[in-house]
## 1
Amino acid sequence: MRITIFNLLPLIIAAIIVSSPCQTTGGQKNNSQFILIADTDYQSLAPGELLSLVNSLAKKNSLSSINIIEPLPDTVLPLDMASPAFLWEDEANTTTWLITIKINNKFFLKGLFNKRWWIPEKETWNRLKKAAGKNDIEVVIGGIGGWTGREIISRGYVSLRFSEDRVNAKLMFMRKPLPFLKAKKNPEKTSLLLGDLGSYKAPEPVLTDPPICANCHTYSLDGRHMAIDMDYGGDKGAFLYTRMNKEVVIENKLIYSWQDIIPQKPATYNMGLFARISPDGRFVAGTVNETSVFVMMDDLFFSQLFYPATGRIAIFDTRTKHFSLLPGASLEHRVQTSPSWSPDGRTILFSAVPTNLELIQKVVAKEILKESSKQNISDLNEKYPVQFDIYALPFNHGNGGQAKPLKGASHNGYSNYFPRYSPNGKWIVFTQSPTGLVLQPDSNLVIIQSEGGEARPLNSNQSIMNSWHSWSPNSKWIVFTCKANSPYTELYLTHIDDRGVSSPGIRLFRFSSNELAAMVPEFVPLHIELLEKMIFGSLENAKKKSMASDGR
């Protein structure tokens, strides 16, 4: 069931501190302070009347079930994050609910609500953080009804806690319309935003109304360098590379192109797919010489099938301005894509699969491009299956070496892609699905040790599509994209402990939109001067006829 709750303001509530005798586990009564809140329907009641109403509620012997959708049991939250949304479904025919929060078996909050959701206001949430410390927070939601209208007739329970590990980063992410064809035809509807997890306000846009298509963005480990793929001047392989500043003017001197590498047939141009900046900001790795399986569909959830049928990894040296293929990741008989750097810059991971000559012929003949847009992703996955393996390759100052399959992320009966090292070098998290590379409904995030090993799915995986992810600078949190709640992709957050075990994902609902997908999230450190505004210096230079003739 989809529950739409995006850029909504918190409930208007009356919050008061009351003292009430509370029963302890030993049966004795102590005076304990707790917060009593109610939404607008109950604000006409005096505090004493409201407390009396809450205390008069009787519990029915047989209770119906309340399913608490968010947050999930055992959710772990960072102290520097704003309050999450509490959402629930109730089997009983009720219109009023009592929320009770306890810490160490002591009441912290009681609240009456007539909606199936609650967003704690800032002051209440900050008090909860302070009161909880390292302790579990017990949340009980009871549905109110019965003959008297004063019985608890349904119940749901969830436990959560705060982590001492802060995120200490902001989030850069893209918003785009769906389906993909709409985004392609309307590049001005794309935006790049900077979000603060601790803010109760919506994320701030830093790039709006671009006249050209802009996609993947990438940052150095310290956040001081950035690159963004954009079709500048009609060049599908163009990208912006710059130091991070409060304001960036997009102009010719900041634009580079993967076309500096001569495309090798059957490719007719280079896109530089899934480009990544090296940790020190000096190099950029991307996919060139690619021809792609590409079908656009009308379905909002999964509106494209996309993966390269040919591809090689290339490197751009920002100091020498030189482009070159990476030996060991530029073999003719293999498709190589989706590069990723180790935090020391010594190793590059990438996804690869043997080339399929029959598939390449269909791409070149544009047979696949003519597939009906009325199909769904399952139909196309069955027609064009593919399973990528992840390889590890020494960078060796651009000289490369021998690529070796990564244990736990290769030859396992799945497609493995989008690997990301944790900044501390301990873990690798990647996306895994039965087939494909992008926008796969059955995709999950999987973790292994950085040297390879047993792969374990993250506990944060939701029911539909778990993919593109980014590590926080301290290696304690991962943000990822998901479609479990909406066709318009949303961002979720999970905690990773020292054993590589993840907590259930929590939806970052303030980053969501009713009409736009949140995509390509990337953490950026707080200690630097972050981007606030990005503008085009010349629309004439930026917007020209596209070089693409294959629909991409």
Note: The radius of gyration is 26 Å.
## 2
Amino acid sequence: MLKLVAIPHRKLASSPVAERLRHNLLLEQLSDEDFEFVRPLLKERRYKEGDIIVNVKHDSSGLFLLVEGRVKISRQTKSGRELVTAVLHVGDFFGELELIDGRPRTSTVVALESCAVYEMQREPFERLLATNLPFTKRLLEVLSVRLRALNHQFALEIDTNTDLTLAELEKLQRLIEAAKTVNSTLDLDKLLTIILDTALEVVHCDRGTIYLVDEKRRELKSKVLKGMEIIEIRLPIGKGIAGYVAATGDVLNIDDAYLDPRFHPEIDSRSGYRTANILCVPMKNKGGTIIGVLQLLNKRGGLFSKDDAGFIEALSVHAAIAIENARLYEQERQKLALEKEIHAARNVQMSLLPQTSPSIPGYEIVGRSISAKVVSGDYFDFIPAGENRTAICVGDVTGKGLPAALLMANLQAILRSQIMLRALPRKTMVRSNKLLYQSTSTEKFVTLFYSILDSKKHLLSYTNAGHEYPIMVRNNGSVELLAIGGTVLGIVDDYAYEDATIAIEPGDTLVMYSDGISEAVNHDEVQFGKEVLERIIQSNRQQSADVLLNRIVESVQSHVGSTPQMDDITIVVVKRTS
């Protein structure tokens, strides 16, 4: 920081430096007599380079006559910028305005090199001003010249500022037009082409590449044309010019690519292209996250300028927002397409499930499936299997949504294709297991309760492939669980299932269900439970099958409350009435 240096006052002595006073702009018009009068009143001061001679806070009110060295007069603008108003040389003077108008100083005077001045105090200055016409005239002449010089400087400053303003307006207009162009499409591939073409056109360079960040793989990816084929290239974040920019967020303006150790010249060797200079800018979204990098090569006619870098940096903000919007649009488009596909699958699935309950004399049979998602993985079916015979089954496919529904449709097709063979349940299960094993991946499997009701003999033959045990509540309130069978379908190629046959008496009620019933949880993570289900069936065994089904569903919904349904709910009730 510059310091104001106080030099002890010393009266003028005869010396070569002092003789220069006689030729000072302000004193050279004085007569010898008047000069000799003024001479003893002047005090010598000396300053080193960088010393502050006068500043706005200095209370000095003297006139300074420069006899050695140079000084700089400047002032600070409102923006904090230093504005140099004059550089004075030997024979010049300063500080006169404060003596004339009595106002505080507005400028700072700094020694540009070792210098010497003589200070004239207010009293002799005012006496000369009032009594000495040549002194007054010369002062006015110098002030007039300085005023003209300031006017000229002011005019130049206005011209310069006008040119800068027009240039900024032109850049702003170009940026606005570029932003309009960039935001003209929501197709991501088209958008990337538009961004790159706009950048190449505005900064006049040969080539460029836009890289997008793949956060999962921590890589940059881009599509380039190789021959007639578009291929994807990938770069690790942190490697190379673009990788460095993606990792740090820095703007790189490289005058000579081959002198930068981050540049890989083998790319030029393979392509035959010679990279001279590079401008590489990060693209950041609204949150400041880097989503890509814009890299430009070889400025035509020279090097990339600060204006080029500033414009591309500003354009990259609009580009990043446009890319984010295009991605969101694509995600929404895919979401709508998927929802449309799922709703179509839902319609197919609902057409696969029984639309009505079978009408069998002496029996009430009802079923319902409530999916946790638009498409359920649960399955139930009533399949006519010949005179007085009906296949009744309940299944649960792994997963949810569309894949589970497709597997369920496959299972239904397999079962229905075998129903007319009049095979025992265990034989049907063996063949179904083999077909599912051969047609599904290892992580897919099905739990299934499969039974044949003979409504004439009142017998139920069944096998259970890993499904929730159906609950048989007899007319007297006793409970039986139908557990005979084997493992789930689709995980073992060849499995020997077992089956069993039970009699159904008047008043007996059989409830088949999926684990969405027993494992339904409330906000305290407490499951509905099989014991609660058994009690509900027992206490409502005299009710119709439809009423019992509704009571079960209502009890489950009351238990879970506002907790979202996490699994599909499927129930089939078979009740012998007579």
Note: The domain at 183-330 is CATH 3.30.450.40 (Beta-Lactamase).
